[in-house]
Amino acid sequence: MTEPLNVTIVILGYADSLFDIDLLKKHQSSFFKIDNICIKRILPDPQIHDGRLDIIYSTDDIAKLLKDVTGDVVVGIIDYPFNRGFFSYGFGHNKYCLSIKNPRFILEKANIRIENFILKSIYKYILFIKSNNLKSHRDTRRCIFDLNGDLRDIVFNTEKAIICNECKAKLEKLNLPQDYITLFEKELLHIDKDVMKKVELWLQSHVYIAMLLSGIASLLISILANILYQLFAV
Ligand SMILES: [Zn+2]
């Protein structure tokens, strides 16, 4: 394996109030490590005026904000949308910016953490860099290279994303280290809900079983309390 790439996260505005930056920093990967957090609270006036109160940034605005930031991979995160409907945009060879404004509403409804979306995007950027910008495909295959032209499709390729056979074949033609793709796929599978969330969702979708378990637990507690009372009653 090659050395992990150093990722610099650039918080634009107050985007970090919407996710847990420590959770991202703790993420273990053989492909990258988040070793630098750069914060740019003051954003310029947006240049796009759509006649309403919405704030939309052009990709030129974002390029200026990321211009002086360095790192193997630079990932800006902003809570405002970009022009032309983009939610992710690349600047040169190793700089990207991710808008979480619209994705976070879709992810929230699907019980997917925004941190998982950010991590998945970093993995995608790493592969873009390694493959010299392998093109995304327009159809949705649960693949990390899905274009997500319909933004709602991010629910299919954020958690446990795959690398589809076509993309895998293209990557295998590149001069990547042995097992690079296999290990990459394994790490993608680890981007998933935590255990507590899975239990919560399972209970929500099995209400009757949850009620039965709750009833059994109440009965056992009642029996135990009765036994203790009999043992220690004076
Ligand atoms: Zn694919």
Number of strands: 5
CATH domain class of the largest domain: Alpha Beta
Shape: globular
Proportion in helices: 40-55%
Description:
The chain has 234 residues and is of the alpha/beta class. The chain folds into two domains: 5-193, Collagenase (Catalytic Domain), CATH 3.40.390.10; 199-229. The chain has nine helices and five strands. It has helices spanning 21-26, 59-66, 101-109, 114-130, 154-157, 165-172, 180-189, 195-205, 207-232, and strands at residues 5-12, 32-40, 73-78, 88-91, 95-99. A five-stranded mixed sheet has the order 2-1-3-5-4, sandwiched between helices. The longest helix is centred in the last third of the chain and has 26 residues, at 207-232. The model has no long low-confidence stretch (mean pLDDT 91). Zinc ion is lined by residues 137, 141, 143, 145, 164, 166-167.
Short description:
The chain is α/β, with parallel strands linked by helices. The chain has nine helices and five strands, in the order βαβαβββααααααα.
